[in-house]
Amino acid sequence: MAFLGTPGNTVQILKKYNFSFQKKYGQNFLVDTNILEKIVEVSGITKQDCVLEIGPGIGTMTQYLAENAREVVAVEIDRALIPILKDTLSAYDNVDIINEDILKADIRRIAEEKNGGRPFKVVANLPYYITTPIIMGLFESGVALESITVMVQKEVAERMTVGPGTKDYGALSLAVQYYCKPEVMMQVSPSCFLPKPSVGSAVIRLTRYKDAPVRVKEERQMFAIIRASFNQRRKTLVNGLSNAAELQMTKQDVSEALERMGLPPAVRGETLTLAQFAELSDILTEKRQKNRKI
Ligand code: SAM
User: Fold this and answer.
1) Ligand 1 pocket: which of 9, 61, 78 to mutate (most atoms <8 Å of CB)?
2) Cα–Cα distances in Å, from 5 out to 40, 60, 196?
3) What pLDDT is attached to residue 4?
4) Considering the entire predicted model, what is its pTM?
5) What is the mean pLDDT of residues 227-234?
């Protein structure tokens, strides 16, 4: 089987299987060998690595991954692509194809079965409509990860890297920057895909930190605070956090915590750094513990 990463070879396979693109699955297949080679290069995969690919499509990138990694686990939701993948990847005995929705898949079990729980690398041209839940799901699964190298919508790559005071700063920026060092590796034009997406793309590499850049007593609470702050972006933190039922915080609790941090009472979440969210969370944890003792 020839390498698929050209428009001609891709069209040939699509015709052979009479495949029609499913817009609802964000199917934009890569048809540029230069981009495919660069993604594999910047992902840093070696013959020691087990790679998780999300959405292999017809197997274009999977072929490159299979050539360069020890093992590849590819999770694809579209049943119509499975016979195609079996054909295009028939030359490789180090690829496992799983027909599942990545948002429902038990990633921890897959990592345990396929890689003995050792950290794996994620490499993918992601379906853009679920980029955020995929990335958040990988973090929240608690699965051991070394890095995530993915093609995403250009604006989403920016959102992952920006800090406070920019309009794109939000819960995704903070989660990514708590767990990983994000680096935009390249911009990719719509003409590198079939069909062409209506948005620009970028490849971003997220390298997992061994130790998070900030310490926080209750990680889950910090993320609940972050979510509540950005759910109601235009509200002050005092109003936003006291309105969030899951947090069970009063206006007074939040006001006192902000005062201790030397922040103005009308401050909004979008101006706080990750370190400040961690500090706020710790002060509120301390308050709750004190209240319980009284
Ligand atoms: N990797 C291929 C390539 O680069 O040419 C295809 C990338 S295409 C942007 C996204 C792929 O993700 C499609 O094959 C699509 O069917 C698959 N997909 C979409 N939603 C998914 C989900 N929830 N779980 C697993 N795969 C999904």
Assistant:
1) 78
2) 13, 6, 15
3) 87
4) 0.94
5) 88
